[in-house]
């Protein structure tokens, strides 16, 4: 069989002539034979020539999704993963195209002048693109298009420091991240398109290891044709601060003159943030017992809190639910809930394409849903401002799920500024 | 740079193996691996051992794919990428390395900040190259033993750089030395090159090893050699200044 189970392949071709530009994959996959790539593209092209837009298909071994961007670039996702959702693949393709714009700019992608050159230039996107294909996914932002956040113990002093630092670096756009999750960001940073915020968080994390960076970026929505400079500094292992700048100041200047001056006094505060990794909110906020993980989304400002660690729980449940598994279960439940029940995007238009037919039959909008499996349970609540998804052990009685989820939502939203 | 340095004449090249150096090196290790420091951090030594830290900016350059990023990762004890991912923009990495001077037995902590910039990014964005060169203390010119054209390119690079104002320390590093069997560059050519340009040449391999051991012996010759040349350059600058002062 050509497609092994549990693999995702990503193909990129020129839309006009079907020349393959690159191919990335995850899982046990070999590069697809040229003839298969040709057929996958051919069937889509045939559709277009008949005025029919082929956007996805499901077969017995998996799912295929096609998207064309700016009539210039075709992206095809082929997944043979069990339970691969259309939502996930759709977001994956959007993210991948945004990665390409972020690094190369829209001009070069929308008006291809030299295919060989583009092919070469695209290689510089692989690292970022691969970070979206990585398993396990460290975050959920790729799926929710809401920025993954970490709520610090002392947000105010961190915020003040970041604002001062950004200003001194001649930038209105600044962001402090722990492990790729936003701790604080300047007001302007939050005004970037949610997907851009997610993309920049992924970018900073994919940069790993290095001490500082001067990284040219095009903002897919805000500035697709004029590059900015993303200056990024690793303060402690896993703690990065970054600013978006114009031509000045230089990396060296900011690093030598500003980094230590602003951040050294807060080193202990930053260390405390690092310890919240995995839990993502302060220990002072207490959460009902029985919870294994939670995903809280603020729909107003497109921020997400995904917590999979640091709960009071039995030795048995900590052993049988690894962090990866918790995150994966929350991702799957989120997908189920938002594609079947909750309207993820109030404007609806885009959502409609992703939803399956049957729930258009609903005359009401569900605000709660739950799921019971062999060894765990999930409960989701939607309010005008929030979506809250909790994962619990199967020992929690089903009738208690609602109150558990409600209390969790209340605790987090009243005791923090999320 | 007319004075030719014999390796080991200024710093003790085998010092990292000695018992005496253990405490110093343990400050750059963590659980038997290389420790990584954020910009706000540095190695912590017991008070009685405290030493001066000397900082340098080192620009690493060479054709795309010669192994600049792998080289820096290897020196820092980071995971060496097995795939070639083009570096987009500038990426700096700080490496701490303790060194003992031969002359007076003084120990110094070298803080070496390597500036690595993807060659294709340099071509796409004008501001990157000047940023890397600005106030750099040394320049490492990398070529790959498996890529003849990267070696030929050295001549152009050196010729371009030899403006009178550019007295910056230059060292050449041949990468992928583990692929010596398939080399495109002979020892003879290398010797001739070294003589013609009077630049030190190092041979290096960033072979993809685990990060499980600190493997100091893999990086010590290069880091000691680099430290030695940097220190020598500083000493020359100082003596030049005092001479000028006397006149
Ligand atoms: N065998 C072997 N392979 C190496 C060595 N150094 C680098 N490589 C490989 O060479 C390829 C390119 O290395 P990089 O370090 O990414 O190249 P680069 O010079 O940074 O390239 P740009 O960022 O595009 O300018 C990678 O696949 C490395 O694994 C080495 O010493 N030995
Ligand atoms: Mg590189």
Structure description:
Chain B: It is found in: Cytoplasm, Cytoskeleton, Cilium basal body. Chain B: Belongs to the small GTPase superfamily. Rab family. Chain B: InterPro entries: P-loop_NTPase, RSG1, Small_GTPase. In chain A, the strands form 3 sheets. A 6-stranded mixed beta sheet of chain A has the order 6-13-12-16-15-14, with helices on both faces. The model of chain A is unreliable at about 345-350 (pLDDT under 50). The longest helix of chain A is centred in the first third of the chain and has 19 residues, at about 85-105. With about 425 residues, chain A is α+β, with helices and mostly antiparallel strands. Chain A is built from 15 helices and 16 strands. In chain A, helix 7 (about 155-170) packs antiparallel against helix 10 (about 250-265). Chain A has 3 domains: about 10-135, 2-Layer Sandwich (Beta-Lactamase); about 150-275, Dynein light chain 2a, cytoplasmic (Beta-Lactamase, 2-Layer Sandwich); about 290-415, Beta-Lactamase (2-Layer Sandwich). Chain A has helices at about 35-50, 85-105, 105-110, 115-120, 125-135, 140-145, 155-170, 185-190, 195-205, 250-265, 265-275, 315-320, 325-340, 350-355, 400-415; strands at about 10-15, 20-25, 55-60, 65-70, 75-80, 145-150, 175-180, 180-185, 210-220, 225-235, 240-245, 290-300, 305, 370, 375-380, 385-395. Helix content of chain A is about 40%, strand content about 25%. The model of chain B has no long low-confidence stretch (mean pLDDT about 85). Chain B has a single domain (about 15-245), classed as Rossmann fold (3-Layer(aba) Sandwich). Chain B is α/β, with parallel strands linked by helices. Chain B contains 7 helices and 8 strands. In chain B, strand 6 (about 140-145), helix 5 (about 150-160) and strand 7 form a beta-alpha-beta unit. Chain B has helices at about 20-25, 70-75, 120-125, 130-135, 150-160, 185-195, 215-245; strands at about 30, 35, 50-60, 90-100, 105-115, 140-145, 170-175, 200-205. A 6-stranded mixed beta sheet of chain B has the order 4-5-3-6-7-8. In chain B, strands 1-2 form a two-stranded antiparallel ribbon. Chains A and B meet through strand 9, strand 10 and helix 10 of A and strand 4 and helix 3 of B. Strand 9 (about 210-220) of chain A pairs antiparallel with strand 4 of chain B. The structure holds guanosine-5'-triphosphate and magnesium ion.
């Amino acid at each position: 069989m050509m497609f092994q189970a549990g693999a995702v392949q990503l193909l990129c071709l020129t839309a006009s002539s079907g020349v393959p530009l690159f191919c990335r994959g995850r899982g046990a996959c070999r590069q697809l034979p040229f003839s298969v790539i040709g057929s996958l593209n051919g069937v889509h092209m045939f559709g277009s020539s008949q005025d029919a837009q082929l956007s996805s298909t499901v077969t017995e071994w998996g799912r295929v999704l096609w998207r064309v961007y700016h009539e210039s670039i075709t992206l095809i996702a082929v997944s043979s993963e069990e339970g691969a959702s259309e939502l996930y693949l759709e977001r994956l393709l959007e993210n991948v195209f945004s990665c390409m714009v972020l690094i190369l700019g829209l001009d070069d992608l929308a008006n291809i002048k030299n295919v060989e050159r583009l092919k070469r230039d695209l290689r510089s996107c692989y690292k970022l693109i691969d970070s979206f294909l990585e398993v396990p996914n460290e975050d959920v932002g790729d799926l929710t298009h809401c920025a993954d956040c970490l709520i610090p113990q002392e947000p105010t002093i961190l915020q003040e420091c970041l604002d001062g630092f950004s200003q001194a670096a001649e930038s209105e756009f600044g962001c402090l991240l722990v492990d790729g999750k936003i701790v604080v960001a300047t007001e302007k940073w939050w005004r970037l398109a949610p997907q851009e915020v997610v993309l920049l968080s992924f970018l900073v994390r994919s940069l790993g290891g290095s001490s500082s960076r001067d990284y040219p970026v095009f903002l897919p929505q805000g500035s697709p044709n004029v590059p900015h400079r993303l200056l990024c500094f690793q303060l402690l292992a896993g703690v990065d601060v970054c600013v978006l700048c114009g031509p000045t100041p230089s990396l060296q200047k900011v690093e030598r003159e500003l980094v230590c001056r602003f951040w050294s006094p807060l080193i202990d505060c930053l260390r405390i943030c690092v310890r919240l990794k995995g839990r993502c909110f302060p220990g002072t906020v207490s959460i009902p017992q029985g919870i294994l993980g939670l995903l809280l989304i603020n729909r107003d400002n497109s921020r997400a809190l995904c917590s999979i660690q640091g709960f009071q729980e039995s030795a048995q449940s900590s052993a049988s639910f690894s962090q990866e598994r918790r995150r994966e279960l929350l991702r799957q439940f989120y997908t189920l809930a938002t594609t079947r029940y909750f309207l993820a995007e109030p404007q609806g238009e885009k959502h409609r394409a992703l939803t399956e037919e049957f729930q258009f039959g609903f005359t009401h909008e569900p605000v709660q849903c739950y799921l019971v499996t062999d060894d765990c349970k999930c409960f989701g609540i939607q309010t005008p401002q929030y979506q809250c998804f909790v994962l619990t052990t199967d020992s929690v009685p089903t009738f208690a799920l609602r109150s558990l989820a409600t209390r969790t939502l209340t605790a987090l939203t009243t005791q923090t500024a999320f | 740079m007319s004075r030719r340095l014999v390796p080991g004449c200024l710093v003790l090249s085998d010092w990292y193996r000695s018992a005496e150096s253990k405490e110093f090196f343990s400050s750059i290790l963590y659980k038997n691996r290389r420790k990584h420091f954020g910009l706000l951090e540095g190695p912590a030594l017991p008070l009685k051992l405290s030493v001066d830290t000397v900082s340098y900016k080192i620009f690493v350059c060479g054709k795309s794919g010669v192994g600049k990023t792998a080289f820096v990762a290897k020196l820092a004890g980071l995971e060496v990428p097995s795939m070639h991912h083009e570096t987009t923009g500038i990426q700096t990495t700080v490496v701490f390395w303790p060194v003992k001077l031969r002359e007076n037995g003084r120990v110094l902590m070298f803080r070496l900040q390597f500036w690595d910039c993807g060659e294709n990014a340099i071509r796409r964005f004008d501001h990157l190259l000047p940023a890397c060169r600005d106030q750099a203390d040394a320049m490492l010119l990398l070529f790959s033993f498996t890529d003849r054209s990267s070696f030929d390119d050295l001549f152009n690079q050196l010729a371009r750089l030899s403006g009178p104002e550019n007295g910056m320390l230059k060292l050449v590093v041949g990468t992928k030395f583990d692929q010596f069997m398939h080399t495109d560059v002979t020892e003879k050519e290398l010797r001739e090159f070294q003589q013609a340009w009077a630049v030190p040449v190092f041979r290096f391999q960033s072979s993809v090893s685990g990060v499980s051991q600190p493997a100091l012996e893999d990086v010590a010759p290069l880091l000691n050699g680099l430290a030695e040349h940097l220190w020598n350059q500083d000493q020359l600058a100082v003596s030049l200044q005092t001479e000028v002062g006397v006149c």
